[in-house]
């Protein structure tokens, strides 16, 4: 016989879960938004069972969304970078509260799209609406979880999130340091009470390394003979090994740190109070904020040092492939934001081409682009 249980989700919307049990058949469960639909499905399903039809139970009808998320958090997230793992765990908890009571079989694109709209309208703890990019990150976390159900657990045949469109994200503004701003920032960093702040900022500007890559940097990753830093897959955002050239002032600053190091820590920038052998890096947040204030820099984040490095590469004739290789981007899409900064370079390329072809003038000696008028006021053929 069938049982119908009303359930209320986080948005205070009532759903009706139907469970049909009949001797000799596997138990079947389904959730509906209206009680009449639930009753109709229960009657039809019982009639089909009594008529002797076979009802094999797929894995998607055995497991709930909450069960999948719990398994993913326990088994898959620990294999990811700590920051990614923490963010996705928080995002998945939202999905568990919203859709956890559904069976995987019931996850349809329309249901996920409805949840996306609810997420967009729901205010954050600060009272502000979630941005399109934040909503997309939530959707990506759930999509990874569903892909895990398809590939690792065989609980689903396909990922329904693939059929749900993402929000269009606004083009981010590239904030980079002007020559004057860079000079002021490096000057105050040299005078900082934190002896590590200057080499850290210098390294970020010179190499485009991420903050986490710099703070987790160990001496065995630095090769002063080859003038290069080797970042392991565990240290990079895209989990790939990356070779970072170490040149000029950044190399000199790290060489001085190597000569003057006071502990046997493997870290290049260890916490001063950390015990020997500790893997805790220094906290520069207070010194960084102070330096920004003294340098009179507004709307500038540490990550913008990476943007600055990429911008300098673009302005100094670095190709998109060059920038992607240095910064560790998998695709050129992320590099397009710096394309406008290389306009001077492309203009110079076109100018050199014209000089090479026309030797600075048109073939008949007239000024390029200016036709010679005839007595009749017409241009010659």
Describe the structure.
The protein has 381 residues and is mainly α. The chain folds into 3 domains: 55 residues; 99 residues; 165 residues, Intergrase catalytic core (hpI Integrase, Chain A). The chain is built from 13 helices and 6 strands. α2 packs antiparallel against α3 and α11 runs antiparallel to α12. The longest helix is centred in the middle third of the chain and has 20 residues. It is elongated. The C terminus is likely disordered.
Please give the alpha-carbon distance between the first and last residues.
94 Å
CATH architecture of the largest domain: Orthogonal Bundle
How big a fraction of the residues is strand?
Answer: 5-15%
Residues in helices, as a percent range: 40-55%
What is the N-to-C succession of helices and strands?
A: EEEHHHHHHHHEEEHHHHH
Unreliable spans are 360-365, 367-381
Oligomer: single chain
Largest beta-sheet characterization: 3 strands, antiparallel
Structural class: mainly alpha
Cα shape: elongated
Rg: 30 Å
Instruction: Provide the CATH top-level class of the largest domain.
Output: Mainly Alpha
Number of helices: 13
Global mean pLDDT: 82
> For the record, what is the CATH homologous superfamily label of the largest domain?
Intergrase catalytic core
Strands across the major sheet, in which order?
1-2-3
How many individual domains? 3
CATH fold call of the largest domain: hpI Integrase, Chain A
Topology at a glance:
Blueprint: E1 2-8, E2 14-20, E3 28-32, H1 35-50, H2 65-75, H3 82-99, H4 109-121, H5 132-151, H6 179-190, H7 197-207, H8 211-215, E4 222-223, E5 228-231, E6 242-245, H9 248-260, H10 285-294, H11 304-315, H12 320-327, H13 343-358
Antiparallel strand pairs: 1-2, 2-3, 4-5, 5-6
Helix pairs in contact: 2-3, 3-5, 6-7, 7-9, 7-11, 11-12
